[in-house]
Design goal:
The protein has helices at residues 3-17, 19-28, 44-58, 62-81, 83-88, 93-110, 141-154; strands at 118-122, 128-134, 157-165, 174-182. 52% of the residues lie in helices and 16% in strands. Strand 1 and strand 2 form a beta hairpin. The protein contains seven helices and four strands. The N and C termini lie far apart (34 Å). The longest helix is centred in the middle third of the chain and has 20 residues, at 62-81. The protein has a four-stranded antiparallel sheet with strand order 1-2-4-3, covered by helices on one side. The structure holds protoporphyrin IX containing FE.
Length: 188
């Protein structure tokens, strides 16, 4: 994956535990030179090693690191580095998710070697939809859940995500039912 992903993991770990924790994560993951260039490609395996080592430092399961990483990706990485692209994605969660299938087509313009996920929206209701997720990689489903959570926070709505079709159960892809409602004033 592009170095920006590894840099975002660094940002998450440093924000939660400080720079020394990131040094330990790199050492554990066997990274010799812990400087990642955003628009250079690195192996997926390296990214998974960093996530695994971060799980040890944060003392949470790998799936929880991926979920937190999804939230962080939306609220920090994308919002701060790619604000215009995010703004163009939509003004509400529903609009953003309707546009999600074509979202990475614009990202590819900046990152030509991108191997993006494929999203398809089916069964669209007023505040609810079914989202099909296909990937070249296995194991990033909790990242998707975190991304959806982060998008909910971005648009100020409460999101619930149900994982209804699982690749782990032998399906060719994953499907999520995503439902949302306005966040009540005063609730966090
Ligand atoms: C401006 C915002 C965004 C940028 C710049 C971006 C960029 C990227 C990059 C560089 C990767 C790594 C893939 C590779 O290097 O081959 C990636 C992966 C991914 N992105 Fe995005 N992305 C953005 C927003 C989103 C959003 C809003 C979603 C969904 C809600 C999303 C879902 C994913 C997923 C699930 C992956 C993991 C790859 C996989 O499943 O195979 N991204 N993205």
């Amino acid at each position: 994956m592009y170095g920006m992903v590894n840099r975002a993991i660094e940002d998450l770990v440093t924000e939660q535990l400080g720079p020394e924790a990131w040094d330990r994560v790199c050492a554990l993951a066997g990274v010799q030179t812990p400087v990642f260039v955003s628009n250079e490609s690195y192996s997926d395996e390296l990214t998974f090693r960093l996530v695994g080592a971060a799980a040890g430092e944060l003392d949470v399961p790998v799936d929880e690191v991926l979920r937190r990483f999804g939230v962080h990706w939306i609220l920090r990485t994308a919002a701060e580095g790619y604000g215009e692209l995010m703004d163009a994605g939509g003004k509400t969660l529903g609009e953003f998710l309707d546009n999600l299938p074509t979202f990475h087509a614009r990202v590819v313009l900046a990152f030509p070697d991108l191997k993006p996920p494929e999203f398809t929206v089916t069964e669209r209701g007023e505040n609810r939809l079914r989202l099909r997720y296909e990937s070249h990689r296995e194991g990033l489903q909790p990242f998707v859940v975190g991304l959806l959570d982060g998008l909910g926070r971005r648009f100020g709505v409460d999101v619930s995500t149900e994982h209804v079709v699982r690749r782990g159960d032998g399906a060719s892809h994953d499907e999520f039912v995503v439902a949302w409602r306005d966040r009540k004033a005063g609730s966090s």
